[in-house]
Amino acid sequence: MRHSLKAHLWLIRAIGVIVPRRLRADWRQEWEAELRYREALLAEWERLDWRNKLDLTRRSLGAFRDALLLQPRRWEDEMFQDLRYGMRMVLKNGSFTLVAVFTLALGIGANTAIFSVVKAVLLNPLPYPEADRLVSIAESDPDTPRPETVDFTTTSDWRERSHSFEHLALYRRFSMAIVEGGEPELLQGLRVGSDFFDTLGVKMELGRTFLPEEDQPEQRYVLVLSHALWLRRFGGDPDIIGRRVQLNEASFSVVGVLPRSYRPLLTSLDDPNPEIYAPLGYSVSQPSACRGCQHLRLIGRLKPGVTAEQADAELDTITQSLVQEFPTSYDSQAAARVELLQEKLVGQVSTPLWVLLGAVGFVLLIACANVANLLLVRATDREREMALRAALGAGRRRLVRLLMTESLLVALAGGAAGVLLGAWGTSLLTGVGPKEIPRLDEISVDWSVLAFSLAITVLTSILFGLIPAFRSSHVDLSGALKSSGRSTNSGSRYGLRSLLVAGELALAFLLVVGAGLLGKSFLQLTKVNPGFDPQNVLTLGTYVWGQRYQKPEVELGFYRQVMDQLRAAPGVEGAAMVSTLPFAGYDRRGFQIRHRLLPNPSEAPSTDHYSVTPDYFRVMRIPLKRGRLFTEADVEGTPHVALISESCALQLFPNEDPIGKQVQFGSPNDDAPWATIVGIVGDVQQYSLDRAPTIQSYIAQAQDVRYVYMLLVRTEGDPRRVEGAVREAFSSVDPTQPVFQVQPLEDYLAASLAERRFTLALLGLFGALGLVMAGVGAYGVISYVVGLRTREVGIRKALGAERRDVLLMVLRQGLALTAAGLAVGYLASLALTRFLGSLLFDVRPTDVAVAGLVAGVLATVAFIASYVPARRAAKVDPIVALRYE
Amino acid sequence: MGAMTFLSYSATVILQSLANGYKYGFDIMDVTGLPSGTVYPALRRLEEAGLVDSRWEKEGIAQREQRPPRKYYELTRDGTDALAEAVKRYRLLQSAAPRLPRKRKPSPQRG
Q1: Which of A:29-68 have CB within 8 Å of B?
Q2: Exposed e or buried b for every residue in A338-371, given b needs 16+ CB within 10 A?
Q3: Closest residue of A to B65, CA-based?
């Protein structure tokens, strides 16, 4: 008995799911009541046999058809009513919709584009498994503000004594010349510890990674290729594993090929893309493995549960005990710096990107304010309609929901257009973005970006729709229905609209001030003297390899021949060589002063060190301050000489004359010969224009040829024109020696500013956009206000007011608006521009000149926005105005 | 509005049973022999057309018998008029085609 009852009711409940919500409760009760009544009756008369039970079930099945036929009533649900109404309104007011959608598309599009960059560069984890456990580790001491390197022996000690790491892998750059299979080419790569790829979690596409036994000095002639190199130079040969490749004069065996999806580790912005990998092959007995021979980089994978801070503390402790054990090998304050790898890679660009995201947020707010203003305008026209609905029984919440649906539809249309615009913007950014922005190739519009766009679309609909909806729903029934349209609410609406526009002007002020501060910083930077003349200089990298060039005199001979040829070429004013080009890497070495030997030679200061040909300074136009430059007479066999920079002289020889003092370069193990300082030259910017120059030292190439050199050629005209002559000079002396990275010296400087220029360009664009939108908003409000006061204008003119007086009256309106916006904007800028801090150079965040200039620009825009309606008002015919209602 | 459109045979039969005093949906099913999938949709259409009214039973009665209140239907004035019209029309049809079978099924009676 119980079952059958449950069966019917269960059926009704199940079928009831498809009944429109509004009708569901009543419908269920109707059916259930009938079924239960009949059920009870049959039970009372003891006629509840299986036939009657079946009959009940049969009847309840009929509910399905009933429910089906109720479906069309669903369209009468309020939600659908609202949607239909919203669509009608949106389509009816075509011009409003177009303007609103366009405005919103700009705002949402800009946000989509910038967010896709922020997501890919800053938020996405690095493209390695469990990338949040990857760290970069460096040895730090007070002399090195930005530690990047470690030495082999210290790392071995760390490896032995530390418990924080699953893997530790050393690596350094190396290059090899390849001749077979195509043009002679210099291949850039990394020499890595055998667990390098395991640390990153990368699996080879072909073959295997290195074995620990291959990571020894004699066994390190195996190779892993990048996917691109495998395709380019070896035609994607499937039998590449085991093949022997000749690099320089050594024969390497290929053991692995990386997958196409592998993203190389570029921890320094000027690291070239590595294409070959070979084992590091160091051992503690080698001289280059010494404590203090810091030229290697180290990455590690933390054990699960260990944080970077914990590892840092542990390594600091270990390092301190190493300092105790080997006091002359370390600076007394040596420590370790453990940093998350992602932070190291993208830390530089995180501030500019967040600033840009904030900026487009402001642009969107301005767009929302404009659309809200448009809605408020229309609100006046719709007062009667809202009043009628209210009179017919629509509650306030119902009216608000109605209007919000309309706003949502407009926002969705704007959002769709915005996403398209944003996708286009994203591809544009990745196209023109400077390669100095890390992970540029990982930027795309993926589902998370789309979700973000949807979220801000909904948010914007609330932002611009809610207040007008509330305003409209607050209906003065008697007033609205009686009068012909203009009600007492218009006054307060004007107040709200003015407030919105003042807010827009404030935001626009902020944006343009930000752009202005960045612009001024940029200008200041371009005025910084780099210490040399970068114009009209062509640079290129040389790489000398081969058995015969092992002898320094042969190598020098090669260089001399090339430079003699170049000097004779037309259009060439001079040629020189240097081991490290400004703005292209660095080479820091210890600097020991003879009569001031330190008890701990590891505490000796470090200088940026250069090996140069004698006319380097002439070609680069670096001034000689005192003493003499290197000459052709300073060769091997004659007393070693050195030059130091002005800052070096001031800092290290404050109370004495450096000329004549003897100095030794490098670590004590190098046992370099003592050189006599013969001159002081001007400072050079090695790292970037916004840092003070470091202390620098020079030696003559002829007295120490152990470097890789860059060639410099000063030309009369465009440096690129001598590229042919330069390549010719090299190949005529020895065609097997490659040259690489041929570019004007100016390009290096420009590259150092590339990221700033990019940020400035974008911020300027957003500032301009915000300014235009705010100007349009201001124009809208002032026109509206002028319209409101047409009668008043007519009366004044009838009473004898001049055109000029009317003009002034309107302009005063605009002035009030602008002043309010500027005041708020200025106060906000005082509070917010400090976030630009690290991006500014030689400019205070509260720079008055910039603020003043921007205020002027804003005032001009607001003036133009006021002037047009002012002229219209001035031309008003008093008679027409008086009749105007 | 209902007066203008022709009522279907089932609608007429339902209205007739309402006129004869059968108020509840399941009772109308019994009397007319129509299935529930026909009766209820028809009742709703008739209600929309303004020919019948629906009401809920008094709470008190239902509470006493420990069951939910049932819905019952009544003819409106328009409904009565429409029924009269329809009956006239069907009588005419009948007389015009005397050999058309009268649609009457034996159905389980109460009691």
Answers
A1: 29-30, 32-38, 40, 58-66
A2: bbbbbebbbeebeebbebbbbbbbbbbbbbbbbb
A3: A37
